[in-house]
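Lecture 7, part B: from sequences to assemblies.

Below are the input chains for today's worked example.
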Amino acid sequence: MSQVELPARVDTATRPVAGLLPAGPPAPAPVLWLARIVDWSIVLIGATMATLVFANVIVHNLFHGDIAWTTEFCELLMVWVTFLGGAAATRRGAHMVVGELVNRLPGGARRLAYAAIQVVVLVTLGLLAWYGVGIADAGRSSELTVLGWPMATQYVALPVASAITMVFVAWDLIEILRGRTYAQRYGEAHP
Amino acid sequence: MILFETFGLFVFATLLGVPLVYGLLVATAGMIWWNGLTHPLTSVFLTYIGGVEPFILIAVPLFMLAGEILSRGGVGLRIVSFATKLLGFLPGGLGIATVTSCLIFGGVSGSAIADTAAIGSVMAPAMVRKGYKPAFAGALMSTAGTLAVIMPPSIPMLVYAFVSGASVRDLFIAGVVPAVIFAVGLSIDCIRVGRSTGCDRGDARSPAREIWTAFVAAFPALLMPVIILGGIWTGIFTPTEAAAVAAAYGLFVSMVIYKDLRARDLPELLLKSFTTSAVVMVVIGATSCLAWLITVEQVPVQIAGMVTHYATSQWTFLLLVNMALLALGCFIEPVPALILAAPLLVPLSVAFKIDPVHLGLIMTCNFAIGLYTPPVGGTLMVGARLAGVGMASVVKALIPQMMISVTILFVITYVPSISMSLVRALR
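Predicted structure of the full complex, as structure tokens:
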């Protein structure tokens, strides 16, 4: 018989949960409200996408039909959920990052480096928001093939999500300048 | 050349700690400005949006959702229990059970990090209790977890299919035999360690009744890869639809059969999987911008000229490809690495008469190895954390496994029938 002791259940929850969703890092009330709107939007869009794609499998195989608009609608939702998900990931410090060099810096230099990184990110997001408005504006005159909606409904996700992400990054920059450590800002050690 | 300048700027920004997605966008926009190119930023950012939109990529968050549901629902634990009872009698049996569990769970999740975390959270402590060195346990989790990206469903293969136009179905089928060979290779190292250190010479065989009970408990999970692959192969559903079916089946197994998951857990699972997917997808979008820039600047043509100068045969071309990809994989995660390298290599592979499906498999295997090579290794970091040891000692412990994996990689590269026979038989 095997001598290995295995746990009866694996608890994979690692973060504090406020209500049905993880609370995320602390922030002033307006930032927290914005974050909750983003989080719940992701949940609703994600559930809609999963349901629609699965429903199409059922309709296709059991009723030999096809919900033609689901492909285009899911692509539209994919753009929204990706950019909003990017905002949620920014707030939780969850983007792919190589932190080995910055983490080796002494306290003051590390804080300066974190601030410089967030300034670079803010400028990039500013460009994305600025040019994204132009792209969305140009997309008002063309339509999605099946849905017939303006292309702008898809393109506007970029400036909207970029602007929201800027709020999260700006708050984080303030926290860095106040001298808060990574662990204090995100509730965990730097990855 | 603009490719090296852009890549240099990207590596510089990334090493300074700028998140990968912004490093890629800064490198692309920065190179346009630095070289005085006339490409409007509007085109660059439109490519960014277009890079995350394709229907086939919707499979990425849906497979992540399925993996998240199954990890949370305790499926990993049942797979581990079955593999341990079945294989625990062998020398190095607990290590072999770990590798087998990773292989099976890889057939469910498609993500190496999820595989390492789901199986490693159970097996790493169990291996240490058994007497394995923590560094070896961490090393095995780092290497075995990467079987998930070779064993279908595989998120990097989905992305490669999107970039290259190769069939997802063929790619998935091509991954099955190589994944099993990698698993056997890793198991051989487990036998060596189990015997040489004396920590795991093998337990007594489990009674057939216990093995049967564990098999029945794990059966709904074991059925999942069959449903996914079978559905895609028979054409019942597309790969994207297969991902939605996987998520729905995962919900049914976890909520109705195992009763490990509650409805109130779902919002958190959805948020986690779609946020994790967004992290990957924005990098795909940003890499698409960089790929667009290097394409309009005719870089693939220049690279083709350079490569054909040095590589005069299929043999030397594949050698160069493996060396370049192993090096690239040390610094970049599989998905962005694929988006960067595939547009350069696919046209060349056609010139050297290499099947794009075979090339996709070679690229995936290379980047799977890259997941546990320093300095940037996704499963390496998770494996070290799970074993509670430093990355350096894990790297030292995984050298034999890396040598085995690289040897298998070269065998798979130069003997295409290993991966392609099944594809051709099922086409």
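Note for the exam: Chain B touches chain A through 83 residues (CB under 8 Å). Keep this in mind when comparing with the next example.
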